[in-house]
Amino acid sequence: MAKRNIYLDTIPVEEAVARAKAVLDRKALIASETVPTHEAAGRVTAGPIFARCSSPTFHSAAMDGIAVRADTTFAAREDRPVSLAHGTQFVFVNTGNPLPEGMNAVIMIENVVQKDEATALIDAPAFPWQHVRRIGEDIVATELLIPQFRQLAPCDIGALLSAGIYEVQVREQVRAVFVPTGDEVLDFHDRPEPRAGQVIESNSQVFMAYAASWGVRASFTPPVPDDEETLHRAVLDGLASGNHAVIVGAGSSAGSKDYTRRVFESVGRVLVHGISVMPGKPTLVAVTDERSGHPGRLLVGAPGYPVSAVVCLEKVLAPILAWLTGAAEPERATAQVTLARKTPSKPGMREALRLAAGRIGGRIVAAPLARGAGMITTLTRAQAVAYIPEASEGIDEGETVTAELLVPKTELDRVLVHVGSHDNTLDMLANELMGLTQPLRLVSSHAGSMGGLTALKAGSALFAGAHLFDPETDDFNFPFIARYLKELDVTVVNLAIRHQGLIVPKGNPLSIQGVEDLTREDVRLINRQRGAGTRILLDHHLKTAGIAPADVRGYDNEEFTHMAVAVNVLTGAASCGLGIFAAAKALGLDFVPLARERYDLVIPTAHMNDPRITALLATIGQNAIKAAINGLGGYETSLTGQVMRPGMGLG
Amino acid sequence: MAKRNIYLDTIPVEEAVARAKAVLDRKALIASETVPTHEAAGRVTAGPIFARCSSPTFHSAAMDGIAVRADTTFAAREDRPVSLAHGTQFVFVNTGNPLPEGMNAVIMIENVVQKDEATALIDAPAFPWQHVRRIGEDIVATELLIPQFRQLAPCDIGALLSAGIYEVQVREQVRAVFVPTGDEVLDFHDRPEPRAGQVIESNSQVFMAYAASWGVRASFTPPVPDDEETLHRAVLDGLASGNHAVIVGAGSSAGSKDYTRRVFESVGRVLVHGISVMPGKPTLVAVTDERSGHPGRLLVGAPGYPVSAVVCLEKVLAPILAWLTGAAEPERATAQVTLARKTPSKPGMREALRLAAGRIGGRIVAAPLARGAGMITTLTRAQAVAYIPEASEGIDEGETVTAELLVPKTELDRVLVHVGSHDNTLDMLANELMGLTQPLRLVSSHAGSMGGLTALKAGSALFAGAHLFDPETDDFNFPFIARYLKELDVTVVNLAIRHQGLIVPKGNPLSIQGVEDLTREDVRLINRQRGAGTRILLDHHLKTAGIAPADVRGYDNEEFTHMAVAVNVLTGAASCGLGIFAAAKALGLDFVPLARERYDLVIPTAHMNDPRITALLATIGQNAIKAAINGLGGYETSLTGQVMRPGMGLG
Prior knowledge:
The structure is a homodimer. Chain A is α+β, with helices and mostly antiparallel strands. The first copy, chain A, has 17 helices and 39 strands. In chain A, a hairpin with a 2-residue loop joins strand 24 and strand 25. Chain A has 5 domains: 167 residues, Molybdenum Cofactor Biosythetic Enzyme, Chain A (3-Layer(aba) Sandwich); 59 residues, Alpha-Beta Complex (Molybdopterin biosynthesis moea protein, domain 2), CATH 3.90.105; 74 residues, Molybdopterin biosynthesis moea protein, domain 3 (Molybdopterin biosynthesis moeA protein, domain 3, Beta Complex), CATH 2.170.190.11; 74 residues, Beta-clip (Beta Barrel); 195 residues, Periplasmic binding protein-like II (D-Maltodextrin-Binding Protein, domain 2), CATH 3.40.190.10. In chain A, 26% of the residues lie in helices and 28% in strands. In chain A, strands 31, 34, 35, 36, 37, 38 and 39 form a 7-stranded mixed sheet that branches. At the A-B interface, strand 11, helix 4, strand 15, helix 5 and helix 9 of A face strand 11, helix 4, strand 15, helix 5 and helix 9 of B.
């Protein structure tokens, strides 16, 4: 019971980090070492560093010119120049030259009206120490140059060398090892082809990449099976090989095969089990005791789901490791972003909401991406992450919140925010746009064709992709625009003509040729959900063919995505279903083209002069994108890049 | 002439960078290579990457529990539970297990009221796909995963491996070599002891440290003498050894020994000579042509002064190199800071103003540091840099500007802003404070004792160091506080008693014992400027000894710092001068103690409960700091840490 309670009693990440800092003795745990100064950037000083030499070593000329005694020039005026004798009254100096004794000012060569080698004419007075760098102006020998616990920046290296410091005492880099666990995880070194229920282990490499950026000396082990004894040994090995921290990947939850906590309890004391963040909740933090043979070291149990692991690494592990060395905690830039969609959130838990964000007009609009802990691609697609506070029940549409940026702030101005129906041709476009001299990042929030139009109305998208077929008019998109975007003037540009067809098993064993075959006894359909564009398309074709839904076996079995339809076909749960070519291709299935539809980009005319939209349209106009789209298969580019007009249909 | 004109015609850094981007062909210049995915973090993709495997590979359980067919549970109610048969109606699953065919939902084990191995009781309905991760939910095989020109973040590595991508085509890292020049610069490898007019070469290592953080493969050469032919060869060698960019350190100005421009013109075309930023102005940017044997590569002439070099590296080189690979431009976090002192600036030139910055009350107060281009330590001491725009004539006291942060934003809350008279004991304090579990960074703006009191009045300092002696009352600081800080309630804490004395040559050849000796024929004094506390102290002692200034040879020769006084003694320009022990120690001179003065910390009582001040006082109260101060020599710690009262004098 106790175990369960502690887990349920989740705490904020800040407290989790504080608990670790409170029990770890960083001065005892992390030793110091001597390194050459010119290799010490990023390292943390182990003690104070005092200057050995002064800089400059002597009063020296800060300009090319002549060195003088200021008081000999005081009388100089434009109309009554003063003449100085070479050697006694002035000496030529270059920048950096030591100032001759008795001289206390430098006059820039440009301001010297020279008469001859022996004499110089001055038409303005020089003040004492003018253009002179004085001894110790920058660095005074024996003085403190850098204090202890200072992470050395590039400039610090320059200062240290200038002060004659050629080696420095620094704190060791923290050493940490990542131990992935799980019977179902495959070692990526074997370049596996995962089967059902298997996953390729990757969290260890996400950790390795982070660790490199943190200045941590990191390593990892092959996946450890779900076995308490093996895990126990792996943790002890990690400690024995000199690591200050051992991170166990997965198994930190309270499930039947989660041994991490038990192992941690057998070699140390658990400080934290459960943080009040989603994803990331099942995070463990412990400190080793004598039983481990290496007391006082850090143990962290990172959740197995990739996004949960990232939150644990960024919010719990990173600050603790940074503190151990004395390095700066990694810190992300932030920005105020306006939410494009209402987003409820569970009270009591902070939530890491991944956002597709970009500037639209004066504000940065952010569309929430999928929220699953298992969806690592939401992080590859996001530009920002907003943490919805524990106290909050969610964020309203149009509400402005502070978000951490995953990209440089300036990049938000180069983002094209798309909301609407997603299509693979959009990915081809995204790829082309990244190749521009001023790259543009197309970020897409999948909300369906209607969702896209709604976003345009709300001003939360720069453009929207739509493939809405209207059986009445036999036209695409315009009838819906007329109905739902009355007050908005838009320009519609075609990206591609898309094929929808019947996804059938490889080799099309039942040789299905069209909708007519759907009435056959041996054919079982898998349908899309009501309202889906694809469902509307099917109904249209059935009607045209004079087929009643009742005559189609499986008509009432619904799926929600093209991929899910394809899966039904792959597993034999259905013998065919209507979908796009890409879904069939993804699962190696065959495809019987049935219908063609227009996938258009709907752009508010007000944005047509936005440089990003201009670049977008220029790119669509080129052959490169057409070639890329045709390469996908299942598309036609006869209309690509053309401005569409109502009633054009398929042109 | 042309040369001169181009140099005088300085341009903004943004235009300098744009000119380089306009002529460099990054796709031709930077090749691509294949690297293992798990070593590709930070690299830039050379082309689009498509997923090989889907993730999940199959519909799979997202929770530990039982897999069911949703419709078999719809009737379940708390009062009318539904019973399911094992095998046919439910199957036990762990997180990640593939969903058995026909099942489309998972019920968490916590919500299963199990009867026996054969039957499970459910008291609530499950909706279709509840707690199920569906095939391709995260990644769909064959779809675009990452576009070209994308710098891979840690999460991207996770996504790539999850999609079965084990190696990736990435763009080469940019290779750049730094060639330091100058007859006066010494190779740090030789661990030199610089003499007058010599400097230790360090810019190459500042470059190396930056380059590492930029992901650039950098190298450097030993210093090249000021000789056109040698420099010409060095540049060609740099290109021949495969570098995409050659950076020449120093010699980029228009002086008699500045050959960089001529060399660049002999192997390429100069695009920029002179940027409108101080420091940093004499920056050169060129592109090689056929004469170099390697056309289309980048040449940069970086100024020799360390701060100028840093501005050139950060503002010109970094953006160009980042663009060449396609990596994100290094970007600093910014903050709004309030200037503590009026700071005039030259119109037409942008100025990089280095700032000692920290939070005081609601705002971040920033005190300008010294502005010399040769003062690298201003960058080691600064927390922020504000760029005063070309158009501006300066910033007023109390004006708020945007500044780039050199430290994490959060660290500004852990900064103790000191303005006042600087003393080495303050450095000892700074070092101790960095050792705390929550380190505090003491930053100091040298403004003299009176300047410190003024800063307190203006609320632009957390505390001020002062050693103001009042001959009338024979007391320290309080008489001045009473006069100048009437409306402010302050607490005064002593940091140390400081010795002032006569700085004399090593061995004290003239055996000077005190002020009485200053009247001797053979003794020549070097004095401090009017108003200096040390000058006041000297006058006081002369008066007490009944000596008239007129009787002191050299009394009218003034210097502005302790160090400058010591230099006069070192060079024999004077036989003695009044100053602190540290100045004598720095130049290896002898010291004849003459007077003792109190160096106090003046703290507005309103700040006494600020956690930073509490920590400061706690630190002063400990023996560690006293030991450190005594170790310096020239100090006493009998009053250290004690609260001072008016009239206490030296206690």
